[in-house]
Amino acid sequence: MKLKFLSLASGSSGNCYYLGTEEYGILIDAGIGIRTIKKELKDLNIAFENIIALFITHDHADHIKSAGFLGEKYDIPVYSTEAVHTGMNKSYGMTQKIYQSKRIVIKEETTKLNDFNITPFEVPHDGTDNVGYFIEFGDIKIAVATDLGHVTQTVRDYMSKANYLILEANYDEEMLTQGSYPPHLKQRILGYNGHLSNKECAEFLAQIYHPDMKYVFLCHLSRDNNHPELALKTIEYRLLQNDIKVGKDLEIVALKRNHPSDLYDLV
To answer: I want to staple 16 with a disulfide (CB 3.0 to 4.6 A). Which of 8, 12, 44, 159 is the partner?
Structure first.
């Protein structure tokens, strides 16, 4: 059974990712409108009715906008930690609250859904509670860390086992520090529980690369403080210092902020 990956959106205005087969799939985060989710899946011949679960990383509005509608209107179970569920139901960013569709995950305990084994792990960020996901599908291993203030040992342990990484490269340090953001926002982004820079992402990848790593999908790129080409060049240059050649040893893709990516076969 082939597993496919699609980013529907990846940025500060909305995040949503799809993993699935021809028979069933899951969503990770739902920070874009429900109509957009349905349309983008339909355009790629992915049946919305085959979505069996939604997994939420944290309770910021750009990750939860449609979570309540998916859960309560479409009967799709919504998985997150207890604290994230509480935060979502208090958030103005999610108008439909979650009741019957609520499912609880516990960090570093695995949830099995069909052929998926999904393990949440702690990531540092300034939401109510924050997780990444380590997803196993047969021999395929995927690690997701969309909003990541800094790399912890836990993050390193899970990400280093993956064949496919969905990893934040939010900002270029010079663009951020020289840009127009107010000082308090710059400090939040740069902080220990903020976001991961291109340079930090590059250094992390250089440290954890292994020959079974196939794709790195760079996510949550800032509109104002980054460019896809800059993120790619920063990471490519750092990896080359370790004799890791992008395009030969692994592929790196900068995901689009407001548009769907290509549909990727994960093998």
So the answer is: 8
How far is the C-alpha of 98 from the C-alpha of 89, rounded, in Å?
7
User: What is the arithmetic mean of pLDDT over 211-225?
Assistant: 97
pLDDT of residue 128: 84
Q: How many CB atoms lie within 10 A of CB 241?
A: 9
Phi-psi region of 128 (alpha: psi -120 to 50; beta: other; left: phi over 0): alpha
User: Tokens 């569709």 correspond to what residue?
Assistant: 101
* The pair of three-digit structure tokens given for residue 65, joined into one six-digit string: 């906008």
d(CA 136, CA 163): 10
Residue 160 backbone phi and psi in degrees, to 5: -75, -15
Report DSSP letters for 59-125, one per residue: --HHHHTTHHIIIIIT---EEE-HHHHHHHHH-TT-SS--STTEEE--TT-PEEETTEEEEEEE---
Q: Which two tokens stand for residue 246?
A: 């992008």
Retrieve residue 169's tokens.
Answer: 């490269």
What sign does the dihedral 34-37-43-49 (CA atoms) show? negative
DSSP state of 15: E
Cross-strand partners of 18: 6, 27
- The DSSP letter of residue 80 is E
Helical H segments across 82-197, by residue range: 82-90, 153-159, 173-178, 183-190
User: Would you report the helix, strand and coil content of the chain in percent, each value rounded to 5?
Assistant: 30, 30, 40
Confidence of residue 140 (pLDDT cuts 50, 70, 90): very high
- As given in the structure block, the two tokens for residue 22 are 């021809």
Give the integer Cα–Cα distance in Å for 240 and 27: 33
pLDDT tier, 76 (very low <50, low <70, confident <90, very high otherwise)? very high
Which amino acid appears at position 119 of this protein? T
Structure tokens at 26: 């899951």
Q: Degrees (nearest 5) of the Cα angle 55, 59, 150?
A: 90
